[in-house]
Amino acid sequence: MMQLTNDLKLDIIYKVESILKRNHTCSDKSELKQMHQRLNFACPYCGDSTEDNKKKRGNLYWESLSFHCFNCGLHRDADSFLRDYDESFHGDSRIELMKLIKERKRYEINNSIKFDLFLQLDNLSIHKDELFHSLNIYPINEKTKRAYAYLKSRLLTSNLERFGFDPRRNMLYIFNLDISGSRVIGYQVRNLGESTAKYLSYNIERIYTKLNKPLDFSPEKIDSLNRISMLFGILHLDFSKDFTIHEGPIDAMFMKNSIGITGVKKNVDDFDELDSVRYFFDNDYEGKKKIIEKIKIRKKGFLWKKYIAENNLTRHKIKDLNDLVKIAYKENKKDILNNINLYFSDNPKDMIYV
Question: Lower Cβ count inside 10 Å, N or C end of the chain?
Answer without folding.
Answer: N
